[in-house]
Amino acid sequence: MKILYVAELIGKPGIYAFKKGLPELKDQKSCDFVIACGDGATNGNGLGRSHAVYLHKLGAQTITTGECCFYKKDLVEYIDKTPYLLRPANLNPEAPGSGIRIFKAGNQKIGVLVLLGQSGFLRLHGNNPFSMLKVLLERLRKETSCIIVDFHAEATAEKRTLFALADGYCSAVIGSHTRVQTADPDILPGGTAVITDAGRTGSADSVGGADPQSRIQEYLTGIPDWTKESWSKPEIQGVLIDIDKSGKARSIERIRHPVPEILQNPDEKEPPVPRLP
Fold first, then answer.
1. pTM value?
2. CA distance readout (Å), 215 to 9, 199, 230
3. What tens digit of pLDDT does each residue of 124-140 get?
4. What domains appear along the chain, each with residue ranges and CATH number?
């Protein structure tokens, strides 16, 4: 079983890269199942309903989110009717949606679990992911040994600690949220594949997918602004995980798949590439 995890899509450039690059990437890597993190797909900050539906139609069989899962009201009202969309499982039980689910790829079942870290998030807080991890994994293991965990967290130490706790209980734990791909993919002794962060899908020549000049201005002025997206060097980032029949990871491969940059007047309804000063 080969599972492609597409790192967090950032704004329209991320959606564009996903649309243009996914078919070729799936053919090259012979993927059986596609998971995409959509936490920043709408304006780099959350996921709207229309984008969730569109990404699913483009080939994302599962869409994960993180601390921005409830930022777009139209998705909050729709999330219970969207079985392919997951928010963090360690939110309060009253929260809409689900963070744990079984999916099918042919005759095989895949369990997907999303957890939110506790360090660094100001607007949304989850319950302790460490105390919930094994309980949730045991629920999935009753139906399948192929289980992927998306751990949406800020702190590297928190991610690496959860990796150690999860080793041997699931097929992979993929770190997300920081939007910078790390160079530490590994398979732990118990057969669990891990990476601290899978990166981002969108502009590679950017600051977390945003226009560098806008980020510089924020640091100079103190005024937050994530609205200016970068279209320079779009690519799909993520990881490809090969899992055996017992649910152990055989390999984990970092993915960086460039797609063509948009011309000034593209035929598709996408914004032109912004020119940096």
1. 0.93
2. 18, 18, 11
3. 889 999 999 999 999 99
4. 2-258 (3.60.21.10)
